[in-house]
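4.2 Preliminary Data

To establish feasibility before requesting continued support, the project team ran the inverse folding procedure on a target of 97 residues. The structure was first converted into the token representation described in Section 3, and no sequence information of any kind was made available to the design step. The complete token record follows.
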């Protein structure tokens, strides 16, 4: 199957995502595009990224999200070494002590 997935298909996906303007539109598109479990997994990863960007420890993140250590590590690596998507799109307000 991967051989039949082309750059044009990926660009079509990106172009489709760019058109989403409201939370309702996003929900409608994701419900058609993904399984419920896939949406839940993406939501969990976004929450994990938010917590890590706020400075939470791995132990705190696992306690709050019940995410696997492997997935937590992938999200953390994406934050540290990825293209910056989490930092760009997740608004984080540092909590004052």
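Position-by-position output of the design step:
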């Amino acid at each position: 199957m991967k051989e039949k997935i082309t750059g044009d298909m990926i660009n079509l996906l990106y172009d489709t995502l760019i058109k989403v303007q409201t939370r309702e539109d996003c929900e409608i598109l994701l419900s058609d595009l993904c399984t419920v479990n896939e949406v839940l997994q993406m939501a969990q990863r976004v929450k994990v990224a938010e917590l890590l960007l706020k400075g939470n420890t791995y132990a705190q993140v696992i306690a709050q999200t019940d995410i696997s250590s492997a997935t937590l590590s992938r999200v953390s690596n994406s934050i540290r070494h990825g293209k910056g998507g989490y930092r760009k799109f997740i608004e984080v307000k540092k909590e004052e002590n």
